[in-house]
Amino acid sequence: MPLQTNVADGNQLDDLDQVTVVVVTFNSAHCVAALAQTLATVRNVFVVDNGSLDGTLESVKRSIPHAQVIPNSRNLGFGAANNLALKRVATRFAFLLNPDCETNGDAIQNLLTAVRSIPDFAMAVPQLVSPSGSLEVNYRWPSTDWKSSGPSADGPCCVGFVCGAAMLFNMEVMNQVGFFDEEFFLYYEDDDLCKRVFDQKKQILVIPSVRMTHRSRGSVGGKRRWRSEYLRGFYHAQSKIRFSCKYQGKAQAEHLRRRTLYLALLSFPIRMLLPTPRHLARLAGRVAGLWDFAFCKQ
Q1: pLDDT tens digits, 89-115
Q2: Using CA atoms, how far apart are residues 206 and 158, in angstroms rounded to an integer?
Q3: 35 close to 23: Cβ distance less than 8 angstroms
Q4: What are the tens digits of pLDDT across the range 213-246?
Q5: 212 near 129, Cβ under 8 Å?
Q6: N or C end: fewer C-beta atoms under 10 angstroms in the chain?
C-alpha cells in the first residue's frame, strides 16, 4: 500500500534527541567498534547485555561511554532484553538495532524524517542490505493476506511484517500495543509483535530509500561457535512451533512439529555427505528443539 510522504529540507520535525537506540548484545565484543561509530552522534542509547563472556560489557563501557548499560547475569532472550530497555525509554521514538547492523546517525535521522508526515505509524524500518550490497527481504505481507514478491518496494509503503534487526518504534502507539512476548526466547518474536500490530490495524512501514547494512547472523561471536549454531537451530524450531500454537492452536502446532521433525531427521544423511560443522550443529539443535518442545497452554 504506497504512501505519500512530505520530506521537506530544512524543516525537520524530528532529530536524534527524540530517539533512543536500543541494542541487545550477547558475546558481541567483535561488533562494538562498528557500533561505537554508528552511535557516536546518538545521545540516548541503551545497551542490554545478556550475560556475555567475551568482554562485551567492558568494550561497550570503553567505546560507547555515553550508553546506559543494563547488564544481565544470564541470557534472558532477545525479546525480554529489549523489553527491559523499552520500559525505560523516555523519548518519542525507540530504534532497535542488532549489533550486526551497520549504519550511522544520518541514516537514523533520514528514517525519522521520512516518517514525520505519518504521525500515527507504529513501526518503520529501512531497507536492509547485505555487505555485498544485495537487498535483503526484511519486510513482507502476512502470507495469509498477500503473496509477497521480494524486496521490490520503490517508495514508502505499508507492510505486514518487518525484521527486528533494525526497527523504529513510535512509542506512543507501541505503548498501547505492547512490546515483545517473552515466551519467544529467540526468533519469531518480531513475527508475533508485527502480527499484533497488524491485527490492530496499525501502520507498519518500510522506507526503502534508507538503507542499512546487515551482517546476518553476525551478532554472536566467542569461541563456542558450534554451540551458538546449535542454539540457533534449537530456539528457531521451538519458536516456530510456539508461534503456530499461539495463533493456530495446539493441534495444528503438533502437526507442524511432527512434520518438521520428520524432515529434519531425513536431512541428516544428506548433511553428512558434505558435512559442514555449523550446518550440522544447527540441524542437531533443530531436532533437539522439536523433540523437546513443551506445548503452551491453550
Answers
A1: 999 999 999 999 988 889 999 999 999
A2: 7
A3: yes
A4: 998 765 665 566 778 899 999 999 999 999 999 9
A5: yes
A6: C
